[in-house]
Write a structure and sequence with these properties.
It comes from Vogesella amnigena. InterPro entries: HTH_MarR-typ, MarR/SlyA-like, WH-like_DNA-bd_sf, WH_DNA-bd_sf. By secondary structure, the chain is mainly α. The protein contains six helices and three strands. 60% of the residues lie in helices and 9% in strands. α2 packs across α5. The longest helix is centred in the first third of the chain and has 27 residues. The protein is globular, with a radius of gyration of 20 Å. The relative contact order is 0.14.
Length: 149
């Protein structure tokens, strides 16, 4: 088995640039959430509920997986979102031991407004060439047959 080629200075520069742009986007997201009276994690709950595949609700366990966090942490996030009038809990349709979480109208409107701002920020990043470093990381240079990393 052949050893992979060592990473070049350009590989490190592209990776560093990608992480920088990712962090800028995440900072934008954090500040936007705060402007709307939410924590970034609360926004993530709303986003995952609105974007959950195939339905308009998710269980606590599904949200924990999508957020990559612990079940008890998601329960706390849901409680805080519920106190703000953004989500509601319901007993499971098939299994009453499960809790289904869905957006309320205020949560729907808030996540719509915030997601639109996130999309606009991503489009602005794309206009500035913000994804070029990611493309080069994943696909290498124009003549490359394999990823740079």
């Amino acid at each position: 088995m052949t050893q992979p080629a060592p990473l070049s200075k350009e590989d490190f520069q592209r990776l560093a640039d990608f992480r920088y742009r990712l962090r800028r986007f995440l900072r934008f997201s954090e500040e936007l959430a705060q402007q709307h009276g939410l924590t970034p994690q609360q926004y993530q709950v709303l986003l995952q509920l609105r974007g959950y595949p195939g339905r308009d609700w998710a269980t606590v366990a599904e949200l924990a997986e999508r957020l990559q966090t612990q079940h008890h942490s998601v329960v706390g996030l849901i409680s805080r979102c519920e106190a703000l009038g953004l989500v509601q809990r319901s007993p499971g349709r098939d299994d009453k031991r499960c809790v289904e979480v869905s957006l309320l109208p205020l949560g729907e409107q808030l996540v719509e407004d915030m997601a639109r701002a996130h999309r606009d920020e991503l489009l602005a990043l794309r206009q500035l060439g913000g994804f070029a470093s990611l493309e080069l990381l994943l696909h290498g240079g124009p003549d490359s047959q394999e990823p740079a990393i």
